Amino acid sequence: MSRPRTLARVAAVQALYQAEHAQMSPETVIDQFVRHRLGALPWQGGLEEGRVPEADVPLFTRIVRTAAQQQDVVDGMIVQALPEAWPLARLDPVLRAALRAGGAELWMPDGPPAKVVLNEYLDVAHGFFSGDEPRLLNGVLDRLAHLLRPAEFSSAR
What is the pLDDT of residues 116-131, one digit of tens each? Predict the structure, then answer.
C-alpha cells in the first residue's frame, strides 16, 4: 500500500536537510527533487536508493516552500518549545528539518488536522531515528499544534 502524502513528508524532510546542509535555495532543492528523486522512473530505484517514487509532489512542494518562507517564525516557535538544554543549532540536522517540515505543515491553516500532522511526523521520525528523537519531535510539534491550532484541541478537553 502506498502512502503518497507520507512519502511527500519524508521527501520534504530530506529536501530541507539538503537545502540547509548544501546551503542551497529551497527552489533549487525542490527542482532537483522533482526532476531526480520524485516520481517513478522504470530504470531508477526506490526508497533504498534515495528516491521517493510515489510522493505527493504538490504537498512536498508546499511543505518545503512554507518551511522556507516561514522559517524564522517556525524556528522561533520550535526554540520556545524545546527544552532549554537543547538549542535548535544543537539538534541533529535531520531532526531540525523534520521539526521545520512539521511546523510548516501546522502553520498552514488549510492543512490536515493537527493530530494527523503529529502522527505523520512521528512515523517519519521513526524512519530516521531509533532513539529519543521521535519523542522529542512529537513533544515539540504537539506544543506547536496547540499554539497554531488551539481550536482543534479546545473541544477535546
Answer: 999 999 999 999 999 9
**Which domain, by its residues, includes 105?**
4-151
DSSP string, the chain: ---HHHHHHHHHHHHHHHHHHTT--HHHHHHHHHHHTBS--TTS--GGGT-BTT--HHHHHHHHHHHHHTHHHHHHHHHHHS-TT--GGGS-HHHHHHHHHHHHHHH-TTSS-HHHHHHHHHHHHHHH-SSSHHHHHHHHHHHHHHHH-THHHHTT-
How far is it, in rounded angstroms, from Cα 32 to Cα 54? 16
Note whether residue 63 is domain-resident.
yes
- CATH number for the domain that contains residue 54: 1.10.940.10
Domain count along the chain: 1
| Each residue's pLDDT tens digit, 101-117 | 999 999 998 999 999 99
Please report the pLDDT score of residue 35 as a whole number.
83
- What region, left, alpha or beta, does residue 54 occupy, with left being phi > 0 and alpha being psi -120 to 50 degrees? alpha
- Residue 139 belongs to a domain: yes
